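User: Design a sequence. Structure:
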């Protein structure tokens, strides 16, 4: 999973790599007087070849002809489900998640899902971090705890007490201590993934069943079971055992990869999109196969099962600008003062939750 193309791209980029480069965000700051980011302009990209399932859904509702190679799966689900003729096992359900569900999942992805024992990309450096989102919004700073000597506990190595070496504290407190520190807001910006259920071990590229974990939350489990139905044989239930939550900021990409660490590839990966619009590339079984590009918007759901599990895929682009993010419905919904922090985050971010049956 998430393998890169090593050094091959320098000599002979594959068709998949060429497409990634084609859609990736590049800035043109030749004309800018200063090299500051706000003066940089994104280089425009030709999006005419990008498959747009929102307009395909409109075609379907109008009873107009669908684009070549796109099939609608009849009567399998409450909303229309589309397949691609030349990619068996790939399912696209545009706007499958209600606005309320999208907001709930965005909130959970930022608060509950990254909580220990679930792990995040920050674990390797800082160990388990509690309440990252709250701390970031309160302007807290993460400090190395062994330097946090309080007047009550002189010379106590607190890091030994509970196995956590880093703790959030106020900016003022942090500035009084000569210790390593990092702001919560910077950690939130750099949050790239969290893992739910059975924990994926990125260094060994496998699930580590001996790592402490909680079951996938009931509501997410039920949702995944419902959404998986179009890709499941009648009467067979999908068993969600693990999920990866990906967090994308502007300019972030997910390189072409296969998800091949699950035992039974006939079972789908259920993949939910939240927040800013993205481009998804669906390749073939070889990186040399030219991938198909499609938009993923907040609320869209993709299923990959069977042969589609053998297809390279990735996300070369997210659109974090107001014009192209297409999150007006979230802006209308997240207006309560308690929701502003979530809105601020999602206005420039995308979250993907992908749910898997491991065994
Ligand atoms: O972000 C996406 O839509 C795809 C995520 C993905 O492919 C993965 O996590 O394996
Ligand atoms: Fe994937």
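Assistant: Done.
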């Amino acid at each position: 999973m998430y393998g890169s193309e090593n050094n091959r791209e320098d000599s002979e980029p594959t068709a998949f790599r060429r497409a990634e480069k084609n859609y990736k965000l590049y800035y043109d700051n030749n004309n800018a007087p200063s090299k500051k980011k706000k003066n940089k302009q994104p280089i425009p990209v030709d999006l005419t070849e990008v498959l747009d399932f929102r307009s395909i859904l409109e075609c379907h509702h109008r009873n107009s002809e669908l684009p070549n190679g796109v099939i609608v799966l009849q009567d399998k689900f409450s909303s229309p489900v589309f397949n691609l003729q030349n990619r068996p096992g790939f399912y696209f359900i545009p706007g499958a998640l209600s606005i309320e569900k999208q907001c709930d999942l965005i909130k959970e992805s930022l608060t509950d899902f990254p909580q220990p024992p679930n792990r995040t990309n920050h674990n390797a450096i800082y160990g388990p971090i509690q309440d990252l989102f709250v701390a970031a919004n309160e302007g807290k700073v993460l400090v190395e705890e062994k330097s946090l000597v309080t007047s009550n506990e002189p010379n106590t190595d607190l890091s030994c007490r509970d196995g956590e070496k880093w703790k959030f504290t106020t900016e003022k407190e942090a500035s009084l201590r000569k210790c390593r520190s990092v702001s919560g807001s910077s950690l939130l910006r750099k949050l790239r993934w969290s893992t739910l259920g059975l924990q994926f071990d990125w260094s060994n590229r496998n699930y580590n069943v001996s790592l402490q974990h909680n079951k996938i939350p009931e509501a997410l489990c039920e949702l995944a079971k419902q959404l998986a139905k179009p890709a499941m044989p009648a009467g067979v239930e999908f068993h969600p055992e693990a999920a990866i939550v990906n967090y994308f900021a502007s300019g972030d990409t997910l390189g072409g990869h296969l998800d091949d660490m699950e035992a039974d590839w006939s079972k789908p990966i259920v993949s939910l999109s939240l927040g800013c619009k993205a481009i998804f590339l669906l390749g073939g079984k070889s990186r040399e196969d030219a991938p198909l590009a499609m938009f993923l918007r907040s609320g869209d759901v993709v299923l990959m099962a069977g042969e589609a599990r053998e297809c390279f895929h990735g996300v070369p682009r997210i659109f974090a600008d107001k014009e192209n993010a297409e999150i007006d419905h979230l802006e209308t919904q997240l207006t309560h003062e308690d929701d502003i922090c979530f809105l601020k985050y999602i206005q420039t971010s995308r979250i993907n939750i992908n749910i898997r049956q491991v065994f």
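The chain is about 25% helix and 25% strand. The mean pLDDT is 91.
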